[in-house]
Amino acid sequence: MMNNPAHAGELVAEWLEGLKDEGQAITITELAERIQVTRPLLSRIINGKAPITADIALRLHDALGISADLLMRVQSKHSLWMESQKQRPQIQPFFVQC
Predict the structure, then answer these.
(1) Tell me, what's the pLDDT at 2?
(2) Residue 91, in any domain of the structure
(3) Is residue 68 part of a domain?
(4) Does residue 96 fall inside a structural domain?
(5) Taking every annotated instance into account, which residue ranges of this chain make up the domain HTH cro/C1-type (predicted)?
(6) pTM above 0.90, yes or no
(7) At what angle do helices 39-46 and 28-35 cross, to 10 degrees?
């Protein structure tokens, strides 16, 4: 498995940075209002402190055109990696894996 894959919020941050470079700057506040979420929630997502949910991914797609599927795949990889770093109970498999 990868080492610490990107959080989906990083993609959103890069997308916003790209828009700014093209002279179409959108603030976090403006985006939060457009997708009808709180600014603190969107800020936590963009800063990698909260996961992107399917609902948020679809809202971001509607507002920015960014792929909701891509956001969810990136978030899933990140979430799996984060969980794999935590102490977990020893689970005995039902079947021996080859």
Answers:
(1) 60
(2) no
(3) yes
(4) no
(5) 26-71
(6) no
(7) 120
Distance (Å, rounded) from C-alpha 24 to C-alpha 90? 51
| Mean pLDDT, the chain, whole residue set | 95
Task: With beta carbons less than 8 A apart as the criterion, state whether 8 and 75 touch.
Answer: yes
| Half-sphere exposure for 92 (CA within 13 Å, toward CB) | 0
- Segment 49-90, tens digit of pLDDT: 999 999 999 999 999 999 999 999 999 999 999 999 999 999
Range of the domain at 42: 8-84
The total number of structural domains that make up the chain: 1
Three-class secondary structure of residue 47 per DSSP: coil
Residue 57, φ and ψ in degrees, nearest 5: -60, -40
Q: What is the 3-state secondary structure (H, E, C) of 42-82?
A: HHHHHCCCCCCCHHHHHHHHHHHCCCHHHHHHHHHHHHHHH
Amino acid type, 16: L
Q: How many CA atoms lie within 13 A of 21 on its CB side?
A: 6
Q: Evaluate whether residue 89 is within a structural domain.
A: no
Residue 12 reports pLDDT greater than 90: yes
